[in-house]
Amino acid sequence: MKTLIVLLAALLAAQVPAAQAALRVLACEPEWAALVRELGGDRVNVAAATSAAQDPHRVEARPSLIARARNADLLVCTGADLEVGWLPVLLRESANPAIQPGRPGHFMAADWVVLLDRPARLDRAEGDVHPQGNPHLHLDPRNIARVAEALARRLASLDPANADRYGERQRDFTARWQAAVAGWEARAAPLRGLAVVSQHKGFVYLYAWLGLREVAVLEPKPGLEPSAAHLARVLDSLRRSPARMVVRAAYESPRASEWLAARAPLRVVALPYTVGGGERARDLFGLFDETLARLLGAAP
Amino acid sequence: MLPRSLLAGALLAAIPPAFADAEIDALRDEIRAMKQLYESRLAELEARLQAAEARPAPTQAAPAEAASARASAFNPEISLILQGQYAHRDDIPERGITGFMPADDHGHGAERGFSVEHTELVLSANVDPYWRGYANLAILDDEVELEEAWFQSLGLGGGVSLKGGRFYSGLGYLNERHPHAWDFADAPLMYQALFGERFSHDGLQLKWLAPTETFLEFGLEAGRGQNFPGTDRDGNGVGAWSAFAKTGGDVGASHSWRAGLAWLRARPEERAGHWEDVNGVETETEFTGSSRSWVADFVWKWAPDGNPRTRNLTLQAEWFWREEDGELSCDDADPADPSACSGGSTGDYDARQSGWYAQAVYQFMPRWRVGVRYDRLDGGSLDFGANDANLDDPGYDPSRASLMLDWSPSEFSRLRLQYARDKSMQGIAEDQWTLQYIMSLGSHGAHRF
Q1: Cα dihedral sign for A64, B183, B104, B83?
Q2: DSSP string of B12-46?
Q3: Which structural domain range is residue B35 located in?
Q4: Do B22 and B171 fall within a single domain?
Q5: Domain extent at residue A80
Q6: Is residue B6 pLDDT above 80, yes or no?
Q7: ipTM score of the complex?
Q8: Residue B234, min C-alpha distance to chain A (Å)
Q9: What number is the average pLDDT over the span A257-283?
Q10: Residue B213: its chain A contacts at CB < 8 A?
């Protein structure tokens, strides 16, 4: 028994990370992990709870995530109920008061932008509805700039010793970001007004920004799998009002969009959706570079 | 810039015609260059103005909106679970598990034909910044059973959390899960033999999550111990203790696992049961002594790139070992049918029994899952002391094999078909068919690992 205790103590001692000054941040999605890296540089130690291959609605509060949440100083998530299926359990199991709702260590991006698509009817018959609005807000780069401003302030308040550095990095990031946004907007001119079909209502902010028109969605209701009957209805509606492309996120199954593309004259476009979702989407700049390149590749 | 170009224009106008053509050309070039510079600057300014207009207005509207949307969070989260089934079973008047002391049975899945199972009403909310409250009421006809009712700390810090009230013990993997979250229509034989269905405490739970990169959690629970294998008792102190340790992690992006070890000690007093005597006549028994159980659990989950939406696989196994020793007395269950224990007989009792189950559940396409489970119990050694001559030791190892197929139109509804070949009772091999529905209304249930 004594040897067991000694072993256990040794194991604990070996695993406790050396006291380090860097702020430990757990980001629910890769886009926020990338933003924290932009703003925090080497002052932060960031981990993302989900990858670009995962559906942020549907992961489980895995033991590894609980351990990370336990040790985090700051939690950065999208909010607006995107993570409602797993974040509440993660927060409870983490036993970490610093990241509970209402604490400075609990940062929700959705609190800092105006959400689109607020549902008129809150009823599960409408599928997996988000009462506060559509949570996929990071696909409008102007929202990223807004969140960056608030997030830099939050980082500064949690780590006052480096407050100036966060402010400086945020101003630098925002300047580069705005130049990039202007460039993307100029490049995206041919996309304005194009009709598109989406797999999930995950791109409304992207469409609103670029002026794309969503004419159909493959999921019959948000969060429900595309059914054969619904796909047939979409196909029928496309005969009357055709679309140029069908858009899905890298983490979504290609089956439904390919089924449709085989029967209607449209191109399948798989967008990275978040950082890590494509070859070039290695950071936030790359995410939008690749997103635009993919969309323009399917534009006339 | 502007005054200079005006000046240049005025100069140009004032140039007398006698000036040489070459000089005029040079001046014109200079003016053209100035004009170009001026125009490009203007275009740049215009672009900057446009960008500034397109840029988000400073954030002021959003927080107010978010706050209004959250106003409903002041009400408790409410959910209601509707659950029922059609069960096809043989006509067996009294069910049990051969060779195991009967635990107080909850009754899940005991009815034949159509039946509505417990309807669970769940209410939870943060009490204040320090505590969270949770209650789960199981409703069935003229009874309401308090399944769980507890408070839990929110901000003790240091990875410590405290829970108090009635709660499902954190031992094992399945114990904390309510029936609507099970992968099969019934509990594994192991849980039925150990606890009836599960073990719950009226007491306190202290958990500590170690500050390590690998998930490592320890828990200690103390309670009244009124549930099987314990009994209700009139006294101070702790009726049942349990302790557990859990660890887990990821292997690459696609795999994750969790393992746990738990211990439970209860002190039953005059725990009522029934047992067959050596001639197969029913006797009533009472046990007083000590009951110690060990439970080990292991779960492995796979999903391609960690995205379970289309396909995923869960492998799960648990094992237990239980030792009970003390005094067992037996007497006739029915005075008209005298047994070997007639008039009452008391002897030492020492039982060492074990069991396990293993299951695999595979989602092979969205909405559809198929599962297989095998249950086995080891009758182990039963020593009735002075009653060895009176009571039967069946020396039987109960087992059961189950297959299930379920379909979930959404996250909130599930229909399940299950077939089981049940040999939990000696001499009976029963084919069991179950068609079950589970519907969840209200607040979004979270995805536990």
Answers
A1: positive
A2: HHH--TTS-HHHHHHHHHHHHHHHHHHHHHHHHHH
A3: 2-55
A4: no
A5: 21-112+127-183
A6: no
A7: 0.87
A8: 34
A9: 94
A10: 15, 17, 67, 71
